[in-house]
From TrEMBL:
Pfam family, one: Aldose_epim
Pathway connected to this protein: Carbohydrate metabolism; hexose metabolism
SUPFAM superfamilies documented for this protein: Galactose mutarotase-like (SSF74650)
Highest taxon listed in the record's lineage: Bacteria
Reactions accelerated catalytically: alpha-D-glucose = beta-D-glucose
Keywords: Carbohydrate metabolism, Isomerase
Family: Belongs to the aldose epimerase family.
EC number, as in UniProt: 5.1.3.3
UniProt protein name: Aldose 1-epimerase
InterPro entries (alphabetical): Aldose_1-epimerase, Aldose_1/G6P_1-epimerase, Gal_mutarotase_sf_dom, Galactose_mutarotase-like, GH-type_carb-bd
Top EC class, one word: isomerase
Coiled-coil ranges from the UniProt annotation: none
Length: 323
């Protein structure tokens, strides 16, 4: 097994980001509150070694394809049925479960990984590159690129679990999400192909509201998922999360068309993460990506096909401030 490596970068304002080479997992990200106090705003495991077994994808890059692929098949290509009969989050040992090469330069950490042809069933030797950069404007810039030597498919996301206040739940975090539609999911959490208007539903975050109002509702889809675990189609590319107690604000600007919002519905007291994260709804993931199961929904989804002459490019900026 390759050696687990760690790295830390810091900006001039004292914001700090730590990450490890396994799955590009972020292990700490600090941001100031309205009084200038620096605290980590992401959940983490108790030790770096626990990321080697990371069933909840804590802080990691997820792929080659994030989310589920129905029946683990695309255009006759069989992928690993990691959630039989479906494929989820890149397979049993996707790029999350790999040691990446890691290099630190200034206020940026760069990770690279060559995913070989046939890994988890995917065609093509694919070179992945992920860059985490902390700017002096208190921005975390996450850039993810991929190039292939054979036609394949790529749809990455980043899976940080955010809690801007360090309290036991994120019920009082205010989410503002510029989306008129959310994808309808079936009983296996796969898109049905139907888009639902958020208007007059618990999924309507267009004007901002506490996350708890949605995840404690009696809406059938939310009850079935145990909270939010749904793809929203972005009308504009900036999503805002605000913790009114600490004053922290995080604006998430992305070039991706979908924001999957997940409210840590499967964390529990047994999950070996920091104390504040040992329970359901203790964090929120804002996963910028293409539409889940995109190859099976060409009428509503942007293609995730990647050809040798093309470059996959995902860029998401997490901008921190206070109110």
């Amino acid at each position: 097994m390759s050696q687990l490596r760690e790295a830390t970068i810091e900006n001039k304002n004292g914001m700090r980001l730590s990450a490890i080479s396994y799955g590009c997992a972020m292990t700490e990200l600090t941001a100031p509150d309205r009084d200038g106090n620096m605290d980590s705003v992401i959940l983490k495991y108790d030790s770096p070694e626990q990321y080697l077994e990371n069933p909840v994808y804590l802080g990691s890059v997820v792929g080659r394809i994030a989310g589920r692929i129905r029946n683990a098949e695309i255009d006759g290509v069989a992928l690993t049925p990691s959630e039989a009969p479906h494929h989820i989050h890149g397979g049993d040992d996707g790029i999350t479960a790999r040691h990446w090469d890691m290099n630190v330069e200034g206020q940026a950490i760069t990770f690279t990984y060559l995913s070989p042809d046939g890994e988890e069933g995917y065609p093509g030797n694919v070179t992945f590159k992920v860059v985490y950069e902390l700017t002096d404007d208190n921005e975390l810039v996450v850039t993810m690129t991929a190039q292939t030597d054979k036609r394949t498919w790529v749809n990455l996301n980043h899976h940080n679990y955010f809690n801007l206040g360090g309290r036991p739940t994120i019920h009082d975090h205010v989410l503002t999400l510029p989306a008129d539609h959310v994808a309808k999911l079936d009983d296996e959490s796969l898109p049905t192909g139907e888009l639902l208007e958020v208007k007059a539903t618990p999924f309507d975050f267009r004007n901002g509201k506490p996350v708890g109002e949605a995840i404690t509702s009696e809406d059938e889809a939310i009850v079935k998922a145990g909270g939010l675990d749904h793809p929203f189609l972005l009308k504009e590319r900036v999503t805002r999360l605000h913790d009114p107690v600490s004053g922290r604000v995080m604006d998430v600007e992305t070039n991706q068309p979908v924001m999957v919002v997940y409210t840590a519905n499967f964390l529990s007291e047994e999950t070996p993460v920091t104390l504040e994260g040992r329970q359901k709804h203790s964090a929120i993931c804002l996963e910028a990506q293409a539409f889940p199961d995109a190859p099976n929904h060409p009428d509503i989804a942007t293609s995730i096909e990647l050809k040798p002459e093309e470059l996959y490019h995902s860029r998401t900026v997490y901008r921190f401030g206070v109110e």
